[in-house]
Amino acid sequence: MDWAAKGGVPLCGFISPGEREVERRLKALPRARWIKAVPYGLPPRYDPSVEDLSHLAAHRELILSAFDPAEFAPFKVTRAGCLAMNDRLVEIANESTGLRPESQV
Q1: Which residues of 67-82 are buried (b: 16+ CB within 10 A; e: fewer)?
Q2: What single-letter DSSP state applies at residue 32?
Q3: Under 8 Å between Cβ of 36 and 61
Q4: Environment class of residue 37 by beta-carbon count within 10 Å: exposed (0-12), middle (13-18) or buried (19+)?
Q5: Across the 105 residues of the chain, what is the mean pLDDT of every consecutive 10-residue run?
Q6: Phi, psi dihedral angles at 83 (to 5 degrees)
Q7: What is the H or E stretch that residue 35 is in?
Q8: pLDDT at 40
Q9: Nearest Cα to 64, choosing from 5, 14, 28?
């Protein structure tokens, strides 16, 4: 949490119980910001939850989906969606830090 309190921006799905606890703690930090990725497509007129909406409006949270809703049904969490989401999060993290997968080094 120190990293987030100092301005680091966690990127996570916040799906597992441990990840949900991290999200809960982030929300308790006054200036913390985070990126929540979802393992499914979002509908064109996505309406976030009231809780997410307040954090979005405060510019503390960003919700990302890299999935086509036709391929990954909105709001349906599947193992395939979670694995694909995790792979994409690793790609984003590597790009942001300048790291490349070992196969590209």
Answers
A1: bebeebeeeeeeeebb
A2: -
A3: yes
A4: buried
A5: 87 94 94 94 89 93 92 90 92 79 53
A6: -65, -45
A7: strand 34-37
A8: 93
A9: 14
Please state the pTM of the whole predicted model.
0.82
Per DSSP, the three-state class of 22 is helix
Q: Please state, in angstroms and rounded to a whole number, the distance separating the CA atoms of residues 37 and 65.
A: 6
As a whole number of angstroms, the distance between CA 98 and CA 100 comes to: 7
Q: Which helix (H) or strand (E) holds 12?
A: strand 11-12
Terminus-to-terminus CA distance in the chain, angstroms? 31
Identify residue 92 by its one-letter amino acid code: I
